[in-house]
Amino acid sequence: MKRQQRPDSSSVVKYLLIHFLILFVLLGSAQCADLEPQPIVLIRGESESDRAPHGRGNVYAPEMLRSKTGLRMWYGGQGRDGHDRIHLAESSDGVHWQQRGVVLEDPSANHVNDPSVVSVNGTLFMFYTRAGSGVTDEIHAATSKDGLRWKRRGIVLAAGEAGTWDSLSVGRPSVIFDSGLFRMWYDGRKDLPLGAPDTKAPKSANSQRYVGYATSKDGFHWQRLGTQPVYGHNAGGIHVLSLQGHFVMLSESHAGTECAISVDGIEWKEIGLLMERADSPVERHGHVTPF
Fold this sequence. Notes:
With about 290 residues, the protein is mainly β. The protein contains 1 helix and 18 strands.
């Protein structure tokens, strides 16, 4: 019997780039005759819950699942009061979206955002970032049967022990349910950059983000992999997917969407910039929490 070989990393990157191109053709052909990969705005923040204090809208961190009628997108939005909440939008074609409004909020929290949603045996699990005050994050969970009404289940991953790489905060989880096991990748840090708005948090001129890995059998009790991160490179706002026998990690940056590839989800190879930031006002600050 001929042994099946895993595709190499270059073929996976080529596969990703082809699908990015297909996405831009499908979404942009009616609007961009030259098919340049310019950003197409699908949702704007136009309500009190996602218009942001400046009033021009602030929506981000999309997470999509297929439904019987198309696609469902959960995403974060910053309200006029400065607080973040998780919203839902639905689409039959991926281009035109109907916003359903806020589906998860926490009046006691400053931030509730960055949802990662998986479906397990008829139950939806949402893992998200929560900050009680300031920008010191932790990871919480919620469950739902319909994706609209969510029950908050509390904290599932807190900051690490003093002196560790994630001792200050953890957040922006990306979760996959695979062969009976929840697998979570998340970003964390032990300090903030100089000038960060949290006056009580430690700061450093060399502040960096790292990516950690944890597993769970039930979605509520998690076990970290050792005491070290699985990826560095100041990666944050990550999204991990399984593709052609590999795990692919997308991460945010000022330059665009960065990419890394792994066979086991633990040892990662940096690929570099997958898609550059477009020369557009919409992307002037780079790509944030790509999906």
